[in-house]
């Protein structure tokens, strides 16, 4: 039998068929017909083998580029070009800064340790530098982009950038391979570049209260990630590639527009804190018990009418927070279990308050991505929950109240 490829899913086999004997008893000439034989397992095996080899080749090429001296040479040339653009006083100040750095050696033009840049644009060093705590801080609404000097500080391990008007991350972002903490909360970032997948040492990522519409699939390559905070953005879904974040133990996607629990969330095996509050969830999937290590679950401010029975199969579940206004069906083993702190938040607004909320929602829809969300309510709730963790019993329900003080 002879086989040949014809299309991505079909295998054609040439089969010899006996022909009808002609009239008179003489044997006729044999005829051959192509019979399609579909064997998806063979196709799938070949395809997965090729895809695996391609991933190995891409990984080797990526490692080769990272070890190559070309990137370092390019960085040094860019640094020299930048120094040429500085005035004499600025160049002398930069030189003094480098000489005071603990990592500075003759011939090494990399600055180094802890850099603080405040709203006034001033930067400085710690009086007692700590080589194990290499941190970059940037704060203030006068900042609309990252300083150019940052591109030569690839030794940094932490970024803390907040309350700025920065909308995009710098082009040299992928060179910070030692970065373990990336805190970019409360800025105006609209997009996260695909190069974030190159930060293989990243353990904490905070992009809360920005203007993100989507999350790059390459974030799934940061397999060492332990904390991922995406609250207060404009997300409607999470990519399936985030399923590879097996070390993640905290996921915060509150205050977004997610209509259902993303599939990738159910595959995060180490997850123990999940915040899905203030979204558009109407129900939970029936396989939520796949999150065997889940301890705390935030579900308040979602239009949910019932909780699935599968939540009772999560043996380590200790705290569940829901909105009690529309919830009318709750498994008894959750609401009456003394080991679970089950909290209902009631927020029964008056008709006038409802009209104000509807008007605010229309304004938010009109503004679109220009909306800057407020984190004060979330901070208050976190403080409230922290007071409950050390109490043996908690109130069955809590009514939201408003207190105003005149000083």
TrEMBL record:
Keyword check for Lipid biosynthesis: no
InterPro entries: Leu-rich_rpt, Leu-rich_rpt_typical-subtyp, LRR_dom_sf, LRR_domain-containing
Key words, A-Z: Leucine-rich repeat, Repeat
Comp. bias (Low complexity): 103-114
Region of interest: Disordered: 100-130, 347-377
Keyword Repeat: yes
Any one Pfam family match given in the protein's UniProt record, by short name: LRR_8
Record-level GO cellular component terms: cytoplasm
Positions with biased composition (Basic and acidic residues): 354-377
Protein name as it appears in the record: Leucine-rich repeat-containing protein 2
Upper classification of the organism: Eukaryota, Metazoa, Chordata, Craniata, Vertebrata
């Amino acid at each position: 039998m002879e086989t040949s490829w014809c299309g991505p899913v079909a295998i054609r086999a040439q089969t010899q068929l006996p022909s009808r004997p002609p009239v008179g008893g003489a044997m006729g000439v044999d005829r051959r017909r192509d019979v399609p034989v579909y064997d998806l397992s063979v196709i799938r095996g070949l395809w997965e083998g090729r895809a695996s080899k391609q991933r190995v080749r891409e990984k080797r090429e990526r490692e080769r580029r990272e070890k190559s001296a070309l990137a370092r040479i390019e960085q040094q040339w860019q640094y020299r070009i930048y120094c040429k653009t500085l005035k004499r006083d600025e160049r002398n100040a930069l030189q003094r800064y480098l000489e005071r750095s603990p990592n500075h050696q003759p011939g090494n033009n990399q600055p180094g340790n802890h850099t603080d840049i405040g709203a006034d644009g001033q930067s400085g060093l710690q009086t007692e530098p700590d080589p194990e705590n290499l941190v970059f801080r940037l704060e203030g609404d006068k900042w609309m982009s990252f300083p150019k000097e940052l591109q030569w500080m690839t030794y940094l391990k932490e970024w803390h950038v907040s309350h700025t008007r920065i909308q995009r991350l710098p082009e040299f972002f992928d060179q910070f391979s030692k970065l373990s903490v990336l805190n970019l909360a409360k800025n105006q970032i609209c997009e996260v570049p695909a190069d974030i997948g190159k930060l293989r040492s990243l353990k904490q990522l905070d992009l809360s209260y920005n203007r993100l519409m989507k999350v790059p699939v390459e974030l799934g390559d940061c397999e060492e990630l332990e904390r991922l905070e995406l609250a207060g953005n404009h997300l409607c879904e999470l990519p399936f590639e985030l399923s590879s974040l097996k070390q993640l133990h905290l996921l915060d996607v509150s205050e977004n527009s997610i209509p259902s629990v993303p599939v990738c969330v159910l595959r995060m095996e180490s997850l123990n804190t999940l915040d899905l509050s203030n979204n558009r969830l109407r129900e939970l999937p029936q396989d939520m018990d796949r999150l065997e290590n889940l301890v705390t679950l935030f579900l308040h401010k979602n239009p949910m009418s019932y909780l699935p029975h599968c939540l009772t199969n999560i043996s380590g579940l200790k705290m569940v927070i829901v909105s009690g206004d529309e919830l009318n069906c709750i498994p008894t083993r959750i609401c009456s279990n003394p080991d679970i702190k089950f909290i209902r938040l009631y927020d029964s607004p008056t008709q006038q308050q409802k009209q104000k909320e509807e008007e605010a929602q229309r304004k938010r829809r009109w503004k679109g991505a220009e909306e800057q969300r407020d984190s004060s309510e979330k901070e208050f709730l976190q403080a409230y929950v922290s007071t409950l963790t050390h109490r043996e019993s908690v109130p069955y329900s809590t009514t939201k109240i408003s207190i105003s003080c005149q000083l």
